[in-house]
Amino acid sequence: MKKKPDHLIWYSKDKKVISCDETNKVLNENYLEMVNIIQSCYDDAILMGCGDQDFKDKIMSLTDNLEFSLGKK
After folding, report:
1. Nearest to 41 by CA among 62, 21, 25, 14
2. How far apart are CA 4 and CA 41, in angstroms?
3. Cβ neighbours of residue 46 under 8 Å, at least 6 residues apart?
4. What is the pLDDT of residue 46?
5. Nearest to 55 by CA among 63, 45, 66, 68
6. For FRET with 57, which of 20, 25, 43, 49 sits at 20 to 30 Å CA-CA?
7. Rounded distance between C-alpha atoms, residue 43 and residue 72, angstroms
8. 55: buried, middle or exposed (CB in 10 Å: 19+, 13-18, 0-12)?
9. 3-state class of 11 per DSSP?
10. Helix or strand or coil: residue 17?
C-alpha cells in the first residue's frame, strides 16, 4: 500500500482551501481513521476469498451513495 498522507488539503463547497488548523486536524484524523478501517476490512475480505475488485467496487458504491445525515430523521 502507498504511504498514507499525514496532511491533506481540504476544500470548501466554493472550492476555497479550508485554512482553519483545527478543522484540518479533525478532517485529517478522520481520513486516516477511514484508511485504517478500510485497509483492515480489505485485508479480511481478501483472506476470506473475496475478489479484490469486488471489494473495491463495493467501497466505491458506498462512497458514491453517501448523503449528509445530520439533522435528518
Report:
1. 62
2. 17
3. 52, 55
4. 98
5. 45
6. 25
7. 33
8. middle
9. strand
10. strand
Residue 62 grid coordinates: 458506498
41 is written with which cell numbers?
476490512
Half-sphere exposure of 20 (CA within 13 A, CB side): 6
Contacts (Cβ under 8 Å, ≥6 apart) of 56: 42
Distance, CA of 22 to CA of 26 (rounded, Å)? 6
Determine the number of helices (DSSP H) and then strands (DSSP E) in the chain.
2, 0
pLDDT tens, N- to C-terminus, the chain (73 residues): 565 666 899 999 999 999 999 999 999 999 999 999 999 999 999 999 999 999 999 999 999 999 999 987 6
What the block records as the C-alpha cell of 21 is 488548523
pTM: 0.81
